[in-house]
Amino acid sequence: MDFRALPSGHITLADVTVPACLTGQDGDLITTDLHIDDGKISDTPGQRVDMGRAMVLPCFTDMHVHLDKGHIWPRASNPDGSFMGALTTVRADHANWSADDLRARMEFGLACAYAHGSRAVRTHLDSIPPQPQITWPVFSELREAWAGRIDLQGVCLIGCDGFSEDGDFKVTADLVAEHGGTLGMVTYPVPDLRDRLEGFFRLATARGLDADFHVDETMDASSETLRLIAEVALEVGFGGRIVVGHCCSLSTQDDARAMDTLDLVARAGLHVVSLPMCNLYLQDRTPEGTARTPRGRGVTLVHEMRARGIPVSFASDNTRDPFYAYGDLDMLEVMRQATRIAHLDHARTDWVTSFTTQPAATCGFEAQSLAPGAPADLVIFKAREWTELYARPQSDRIVLRNGAAIDRTLPDYSTLDHLWETP
């Protein structure tokens, strides 16, 4: 197959490799034909195109990113690679986050995600006043501008010690509801966290909003805010969807305690998103850049979660900012790295759903499928096995949207230079 010229219209992608789980079958990879007609997966054959067992996946859903932080590294690099170095650097850079600055960087990130094959993105948005009044209108503008290419969701982000049920956060919650977003917060051990969580859930319930938390992003085993979120959610009977991200401290806790917490998470119906690339970058790093080899990976207990029926997704997280110096919002890279970091190989055969169908379902995006009637939003790779897929960057992949190949040209970094050049 010539990857430079794929016809459109009513065609049959003959002899393609797809994950069996995405076709409702048992097993790992299977070879089949995919019919495309009028921009949708069809059940009737069209013009035959021999694909030579090329692998085909549905377009990706990247459900935990930070478009507003993205690409500030040239002017706001992490001084030592630590979590605190990232936090303090970003907070200082907020002074530069004008509407024009945000728009340029967020649009750059969306263009990267689109070119790599994502069709849906959920982004967290720093919402410490007065930033929400600047960021959320830009978010809504971009959501409208990118409609039809990327479905976009927004989540507010503050630290739990900045939460007040009757203070600034109430205003932020109203703003989030106005812009059709999700209520979010970072949780870490503070003495009155239970009270803060109860207030958070009350605000979300009153506005009909789902919840999305950054949780226990630390290797400190004593950090158990995940457990408290599950307990409080059960106690108050919160009716919305709850997503918890990171959950790193589980990996350092006593095994019996961690498993008991996961049983509670399963009962509470929480959805988990793991961010392995950012966690590997930040966690178990010696402060101030001391030369010490890290011992821990920081990845949460995804295998034990799936064994309990807990929905698990993976996502990109940060991109070229103090929390993660690298990345390009390429979900294939996330799949490749997650497979290596969390040992997803030699395990179950349906992990691919954690990068495609599961995050879409968790966030409430349009369902993804390879079944007839589904949009022909596909990513095609010149690879016939998982080892071939992960061995190369797949820079020659084809992305189909509504059955037609898109222009995959990535934006040039130089287009952002004006944001940090001195006049």
How would you characterize this protein structure?
This protein folds into two domains: 86 residues, Roll (Urease, subunit C, domain 1); 304 residues, Metal-dependent hydrolases (TIM Barrel, Alpha-Beta Barrel). The chain is globular. By secondary structure, it is an alpha/beta fold. Helix content is 31%, strand content 20%. The longest helix is centred in the N-terminal third of the chain and has 18 residues. The chain is built from twelve helices and 16 strands.
Count of individual domains? 2
CATH topology of the largest domain, anyone?
TIM Barrel
- The backbone outline, from C-alpha atoms, is globular
Mean pLDDT: 95
- Classify the oligomer: single chain
**What is the tally of beta strands?**
16
Percentage of residues in helical conformation: 25-40%
What's the architecture of the largest domain in CATH terms? Alpha-Beta Barrel
Strand content: 15-25%
Q: Order of strands across the biggest sheet?
A: 9-10-11-12-13
The CATH H-level superfamily of the largest domain is Metal-dependent hydrolases
Give a topology summary.
Blueprint: E1 11-19, E2 29-37, E3 40-42, E4 47-50, E5 55-58, E6 60-65, H1 83-93, H2 99-116, E7 118-126, H3 131-145, E8 151-157, H4 168-178, E9 183-187, H5 193-207, E10 211-215, H6 225-236, E11 242-246, H7 255-268, E12 271-274, H8 276-282, H9 302-307, E13 312-314, H10 331-341, H11 357-363, E14 378-381, H12 386-391, E15 398-401, E16 404-405
Parallel strand pairs: 1-4, 6-7, 7-8, 9-10, 10-11, 11-12, 12-13
Antiparallel strand pairs: 1-2, 2-3, 5-14, 14-15, 15-16
